[in-house]
Write a structure and sequence with these properties.
By secondary structure, this protein is of the alpha+beta class. The chain has 3 domains: 39 residues, no CATH class; 94 residues, Phosphorylase Kinase, domain 1 (2-Layer Sandwich); 158 residues, 2-Layer Sandwich (Muramoyl-pentapeptide Carboxypeptidase, domain 2). 34% of the residues lie in helices and 22% in strands. The protein contains 10 helices and 14 strands. It is elongated. The protein starts with 10 loop residues before the first helix and ends with a strand. The protein binds zinc ion. The site of zinc ion has 5 residues, from strand 6.
C-alpha cells in the first residue's frame, strides 16, 4: 500500500522555529523584568511620599477608604449650635455688672438717652418708701427692689425701708463732693465722697437705704436691727433679689470706699447670689469672670432654682461677636472698661 508520505520538516525550518522561540522568551523576560523594576520603583516612591516625606501629607494623596459605617455624632457642649450676636462698643458702659470705681479709675460714662431710668414716685408699690419724689432708678433695679419689699412685708409685716439716694447726675455728685471737701477738708472729704463721675449712683443701679417708721422715726440701716430684728431682713435676702452690700467693712482695700452698710447695688439675681455666697465684691467678681473667657471654660452655678452660665469677652473695636447658644435666654452687660459679660440662664432640672 502506498501511504501518503508526511513531509518531514527540514533542518533549516526547525532552526528558525527554535530561534523564534528563543526571541519570544527573551522579550517576555525583558517585559517581566521591566514590570518588576517599575513595580519596585513605584513602591519605593509610594513609601517615600506617604511615610518619609513630611512636606507631603499622606492623607492628601492616599484615596479615602470606602466605608459603610455611619459617621460618629459629636454632641459635646463645645459643639453646640450658636449664633453670633454683635455687641456695640458703647454698650461696654451699660448693664447691671458695670464697675464704677475711683480706685480703678473707672468713671461712669453717661449714656446719651436715659430711657432705662424710672421715676420711683408714682411707679413704686406701697411696701417701701422714698425720701424724695425726684428719685430715679434703673427700671431693672426698681422692679427687683419692689419685689424684695413685697417679700419683706409678706414675711415680717414691716415696710419701713426707705430709699434716700438712687440715681445721681454728675452735677449732683459735684455738689456733694464739694460740700464734703468743705466740711472734712481735701483729704478726708475725697476719701468719704466719690469724685464726680466716679460715684456708683451715676449708674442708676445703686440705692442708699434707711429705716423710716410709720411714727416718723428714722434709723440708719446699719444699726436699725438693734431696734427691731426685722430691720436686718434685707441683709439675709438682698442677694435673692439681685442686690449686694457694695462696700463691706472688710473690703475697703478692694473697693476704695469705707464701710457703707446702707449702700446696696443691683447686679442681677444669679450674680448677687454667687458674690454673696463667695464673699466677693464687684471688683473681685469681675476679675474672676475674666478667667472665664468666651473661648474657654465658662463659670457654671445654680442659684434660686436657675442654672447660670457666665463668660467674659474682650471688646474688639466697634463691634464684638458674642457666640450665644441658639434659643438660649441670656443677658449681656458691659464691664465699663473694655469688655462684656454674657449670662445664659435656664430653669434648673
Ligand atoms: Zn450710696
Amino acid at each position: 500500500m502506498n501511504n501518503p508520505k508526511i513531509p518531514r520538516p527540514r533542518n533549516a525550518e526547525r532552526e528558525r522555529r527554535a530561534l523564534r522561540d528563543k526571541k519570544r522568551a527573551k522579550i517576555i523576560a525583558v517585559c517581566i523584568l521591566t514590570a518588576a523594576i517599575l513595580a519596585v520603583w513605584g513602591l519605593i516612591v509610594f513609601f517615600w511620599i506617604t511615610l518619609v516625606d513630611p512636606t507631603h501629607p499622606a492623607e492628601t494623596e492616599a484615596p479615602l477608604p470606602e466605608t459603610t459605617a455611619a459617621p460618629v455624632e459629636t454632641t459635646s457642649p463645645a459643639d453646640r449650635e450658636t449664633e453670633t450676636v454683635w455687641l456695640a462698643a458703647e454698650d461696654i458702659h451699660r448693664g447691671s455688672l458695670i464697675l464704677v470705681s475711683t480706685l480703678l479709675s473707672r468713671a461712669y460714662v453717661f449714656p446719651e438717652n436715659d430711657a432705662d431710668l424710672l421715676s420711683l414716685y408714682g411707679n413704686k408699690n406701697g411696701n417701701y418708701r422714698i425720701s424724695s419724689s425726684a428719685l430715679m432708678l434703673h427700671k431693672d433695679a426698681a422692679a427687683a427692689f419692689g419685689e424684695m419689699a413685697d417679700a419683706c412685708y409678706t414675711e415680717t409685716g414691716m415696710r419701713d425701708y426707705q430709699i434716700t439716694q438712687a440715681y445721681r447726675t454728675k452735677e449732683e455728685q459735684t455738689e456733694i463732693y464739694d460740700s464734703y471737701l468743705e466740711i472734712y477738708g481735701a483729704e478726708e472729704g475725697a476719701r468719704l465722697a466719690a469724685a464726680p463721675g466716679y460715684s456708683e449712683h451715676h449708674s442708676g443701679y445703686a440705692v442708699d437705704l434707711n429705716v423710716f417708721t410709720r411714727e416718723g422715726v428714722s434709723y440708719s440701716l446699719g444699726s436699725a436691727s438693734e431696734v427691731d430684728p426685722a430691720y436686718g431682713w434685707i441683709y439675709e435676702h438682698a442677694a435673692d433679689y439681685g442686690f449686694v452690700v457694695r462696700y463691706p467693712a472688710d473690703k475697703t482695700a478692694v473697693t476704695g470706699i469705707t464701710n457703707e452698710p446702707w449702700h446696696f447695688r443691683y447686679v442681677g439675681r444669679g450674680h448677687a447670689a454667687y458674690m454673696t455666697e463667695n464673699d466677693l465684691t464687684l471688683e473681685e467678681y469681675i476679675a474672676l469672670l475674666y478667667k472665664y473667657p468666651q473661648d474657654g471654660e465658662h463659670l457654671h452655678f445654680t442659684a434660686g432654682g436657675v442654672d447660670y452660665e457666665v463668660f467674659s469677652l474682650a471688646a474688639t473695636g466697634e463691634k464684638t461677636a458674642a457666640e450665644i447658644p441658639v434659643g438660649a435666654d441670656y443677658t449681656v452687660s458691659g464691664d465699663n472698661d473694655d469688655g462684656f459679660i454674657v449670662t445664659i440662664y435656664k430653669n434648673a432640672k
